[in-house]
Write a structure and sequence with these properties.
Layout: H1 5-9, H2 19-27, E1 31-34, H3 46-54, H4 69-82, E2 91-94, H5 96-108, E3 114-119, H6 124-131, E4 135-140, H7 152-157, E5 163-169, H8 181-193, E6 197-201, E7 227-232, E8 245-249, H9 252-264, H10 270-279, H11 284-307, E9 312-313, E10 321-325, H12 331-340, E11 347-350, E12 352-353, E13 367-371, H13 376-395
Parallel strand pairs: 1-11, 3-4, 3-5, 5-6, 6-7
Antiparallel strand pairs: 2-8, 7-8, 9-10, 10-13, 12-13
The structure holds pyridoxal-5'-phosphate.
Pyridoxal-5'-phosphate binds at residues 38, 96-98, 122, 169, 173, 201, 203, 232, 234, 240, 245.
Length: 396
């Protein structure tokens, strides 16, 4: 039996590839501090479960393919508070931001079409773009410039007749970089003048730590037809398991095409949409408290990493990840060794090896992405283990 070239090209997720080894490590009684995946430990707001329990329909029917009206209405209100006007026709509810990305790429890419993505990038972009027949065109950034990527020259140097879109995560996964108003304007201008889609993956919108306004590509005027927002309740409300997201665009043709795929998959979970609608009732205090908690975690991990011998990292300004260059030859081998041969007071650490966040061969080999999704106390312990691990690994 022969598999498709596209699936053979598709890589394993660098966040999850050590899962099986980690299971063995746990069986040996070793505790693992998991900084490899962006699974927040914050409690999901009670309103989610209240709404879920209150929803007892005699027949659990399919929801409408574009999403249930009450959830779409809640999202419209949420965006209005940010200063962006959307209507029911602008929002399609999807099974997480992941499905929104997959639907979008299938709507806009022909075989060989290119999507410009600042590198390092969220590795699943590679899968979504590749499975739709497209190709990631990496825009190289570097740690010393804080991974900034909004340069007209850089962007235009990558554009050719196959370029269909510019895709970025803002705030950034894995870098924590946050776009300024003027940087967004630069990207919007490039997209407009070359007639490209500009896709803002904004699933981390609330996670900014320097007091910035919560930006969205939807705010940028005069590119309404080009702009697409990938949205999700996963991180915003610490509700990853709800699997609720959205594809948001004012481009009518794109919506029509995307709706065909939404109809093809029939609907997103009715119950989870009802419960997700209730999430949008949380007050500003919820976001404030969550942001303060993550700011503490960010400060803790950044301060510890900055003091480690030979470690280089840029201060993340948003999301809940930090990329760090470690003084090791190969982060993949180091992770494997940390799980199979190392322990510190009965514990070890998991992170995501950096190479999987790059397309450019050879890049990210000695880098890792750390998700600061544990409490500050656990992050301190994890950093003790990482520091001891680096020393022991280099002494072998
Ligand atoms: C940048 C980015 N986009 C999209 C997603 C998808 O999230 P979900 O499908 O849970 O909404 C993630 C998840 O980690 C992410 O980090």
């Amino acid at each position: 039996m022969v598999f498709s070239d596209r699936i053979l090209e598709c890589n394993q997720s660098p966040m999850r590839k050590f899962h099986t080894i980690a299971e063995d490590t746990k069986k040996r009684g070793i505790k693992i501090y998991q900084l490899n995946i962006g699974q927040p430990d914050i409690v999901t707001p009670a309103v989610y479960y209240d709404a879920l329990c209150a929803s007892t329909q005699p027949t659990l029917a399919y929801a409408p393919s574009p999403g249930i009206p009450s959830l779409i209405l809640q999202m419209i209100r949420y965006y209005k508070r940010l200063g962006v006007e959307y209507t029911t026709d602008d929002i399609l509810i999807t099974a997480g931001g992941s499905e929104a990305l997959s639907i979008l790429m299938n709507c806009i890419l022909n075989p060989g079409d290119e999507v410009i993505v600042p590198e390092p990038f969220y590795p699943n972009y590679h899968s979504f773009i590749g499975m739709a027949g497209g190709v990631v065109r990496p825009l190289q950034t570097n740690i010393d410039e804080g991974y900034r990527y909004a340069s007209r020259e850089k962007l235009e140097s990558l554009i050719n007749e196959r370029t269909k879109a510019i895709l970025f995560t803002n705030p950034g996964n894995p870098t924590g970089a946050v776009l300024t108003d003027s940087e967004m304007r630069i990207i919007a201008d490039v997209a407009k003048s070359h007639d490209l889609f500009v896709i803002g993956d904004e699933v981390y919108r609330e996670f900014v730590y320097a007091g910035e306004r919560l930006l969205t590509i939807g705010m940028v005027e005069d590119i309404a037809d080009h702009a697409v927002i990938i949205d999700s309740v996963s991180k915003r409300f610490s509700a990853c398991g709800a699997r609720i997201g959205a594809l948001i665009t004012k481009n009518r043709s794109l919506r029509q095409h995307a709706l065909k795929l939404c109809q093809g998959r029939l609907s997103v979970s009715t119950q989870n949409q009802i419960a997700a609608a209730a999430l949008y009732n949380v007050t500003e205090d919820y976001f404030h408290d969550m942001r303060e908690e993550y700011r503490l975690r960010r400060d803790t991990i950044y301060s510890r990493l900055s003091k480690m011998n030979g470690v280089v990292c840029a201060e993340p300004r948003g999301a809940f990840y930090v990329m760090a260059r470690l003084p090791v030859d190969d982060a993949d081998m180091f992770q494997s060794w940390m799980l199979t041969e190392f322990e510190y007071d009965g514990s070890t650490v998991m992170f995501a090896p950096g190479a999987g966040f790059y397309k450019t061969p050879g890049k990210g080999q000695n880098e890792v992405r750390l998700a600061y999704v544990l409490c500050a106390e656990d992050i301190e312990k994890a950093m003790d283990i990482l520091e001891a691990g680096i020393i022991a690994y280099n002494r072998r």
